[in-house]
Amino acid sequence: MKTDKIVKLQINDELYNYQALKGIFTYIVCGVRDYGDSVLYEIECQECRDHDNCRLLVSQIDNQKRFKYVSMINEDEENEQYYWHSTDDFFMTKNDCKKAAYQKAKEYKEKQIEELKTKLKSAQENLIEIKLLIDGCV
Fold this sequence. Notes:
Blueprint: E1 14-19, E2 23-34, E3 39-45, E4 55-60, E5 66-72, E6 90-91, H1 94-137
């Protein structure tokens, strides 16, 4: 990663992550692990309600203002929570987080439409074959 592209977050800065069916989760930076050419951030989820707030380690995605899950810091093997936090990128603004979530939803719908078009074309071809079979019986 280019060192001039490294984002330097501070303690108490916020990151945001969208979780399907849950909405936008807010995370507070509670620790910084600076290795010079890379920085890992310890963040704490503010949305955890039925257990201690999850603490995660995230890393900046190369030359972008987005962050990726690395690992859980305080995982409880009896009550695993990582799956709520590990799937999508973390963003510096709620707006960027929303845009990414909407983009993902848009791409999913576009894929569904293409799959339905393929199924429709196949059904239409099958219908033509059935009509030809019917015509052959007359």
